[in-house]
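User: What would this chain look like folded?
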Amino acid sequence: MTTWSLRRRPARTLGLLLLVVLGFLVLRRLDWSPLVPLRLRHRQLGLQAKGWNFVLEDSSFRIFGGSIHYFRVPREYWRDRLLKMKACGLNTLTTYVPWNLHEPERSKFDFSGNLDLEAFVLMAAEIGLWVILRPGPYICSEMDLGGLPSWLLQDPGMRLRTTYKGFTEAVDLYFDHLMSRVVPLQYKRGGPIIAVQVENEYGSYNKDPAYMPYVKKALEDRGIVELLLTSDNKDGLSKGIVQGEVLKTVSAIVDAGSSINLYMFHGGTNFGFMNGAMHFHDYKSDVTSYDYDAVLTEAGDYTAKYMKLRDFFGSISGIPLPPPPDLLPKMPYEPVTPVLYLSLWDALKYLGEPIKSEKPINMENLPVNGGNGQSFGYVLYETGITSPGILSGRVHDRGQVFVNTVSIGFLDYKTTKIAVPLIQGYTVLRILVENRGRVNYGENIDDQRKGLIGNLYLNDSPLKNFRIYSLDMKKSFFQRFGLDKWSSLPETPTLPAFFLGSLSISSTPCDTFLKLEGWEKGVVFINGQNLGRYWNIGPQKTLYLPGPWLSSGINQVIVFEETMAGPALQFTETPNLGRNQYIK
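Assistant: Here's the prediction, encoded as structure tokens.
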């Protein structure tokens, strides 16, 4: 199994915007070969490592790759991004495969729309790119639980990324389905996939020596016949960070005869609740943008790095590179002022009967979604109390505490106790808990259940008899709120609440960036598409809104705001990701 050594990304300062120096996946050293994919009549041997060199069939071959994740880019823009990769002089696309998105419920698979892996791979082939596939099952990728599905955590004894039976049985069923789609796309079958990665960065985890051989065999048993590789960041590899001018790093690697992969060539966006988190000393969730200070911006625009890399690869390729596609236009639309509103408390009656339980139930074990629990979003817990005191409990990740409908503060990893004021008679205690993203990298990946974990205590006595509402905020969630359910926006709205407005577009829709000045924390939905989270603590100040998700005419805009509503939503041509200086 050929080692694919990963020159690690800089240490993640999560809770800060992921705009960092490019990391490089550096493959073994080898001799020069053309940048363009080889067009071979016979496909018998595939990509091989011979000594310090790679060969494709009987010709020396070098990988000049870049990472683009299909699930972070609107499908309508896949071709644009891949053409820009080709025009930069690269010859290989690398992409992860997110298990949690493809199997959101056990044995229910989704490879449609933005998750159509086969279409993405075939499009890359059509454009003239080879493909290195990174199917996991764990992928990290700054993604919720590293791309593992949350329903795995229903098992209280679950040990992720090991040969624990409950984990390998789930992997086997997933790989049965996934590999049936991947196998026909391999090089030796006439497809573009020249190599497949075995898991991801396991050397920095290394909980079970039998695990990597298990994953390797699981791939081979299901028909993977191309070169297998690993990536890692353990020990010395983690010190291979180079800061400053990216062209110097790329040219040094190429001059040394190495292959290279740019992570990321184009980062894209953590749309919806896709983002992960880090938790070493403190819990820090990832922001919505996955711009990554990559070669292409979050919206697919060219950077100074792109032009310098294109000039460099063009100078050594020996053949003219295709012209770069034109930039996609941006539009600063008129501000949207919400006109309708629905408080969370009024919305509850449209959600059906709550789950009733003597004790709190964590998000993953809620009896919803066909027994698969809840993966993302919020959970609201309610119970009755008759006296004041000190409220305490384990909350993952952030819980806003209410007495009736009055907010009295928050519980999280640092604040584990809160004073409940003096009250008279029966009172409803409510805790709105947000899953801000499960840890994607670190030692405590098994401890990522969300919501209320264990008992909730008042004056050290466990509270009982809970009513629990699942607030996953999927498209089906909002279908319960017809226009007749909304009210005119009052001067002082009760929060948390949903706010409804409309964006009118008279021309062909273009990309734009949404600003939420005056709003504090929440989520934005456009025509049912979840753009992701916003929070005024920064650093990210705008959300990317792709043009294909808009239509000519009226576009529905819904904002779920937790604590403070602003006057309007603004649109701009220019993103603000909280960084003044970018790596060139």
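The chain has three domains: 2-317, 329-342+483-584, 352-471. If you want, I can go into more detail on any region.
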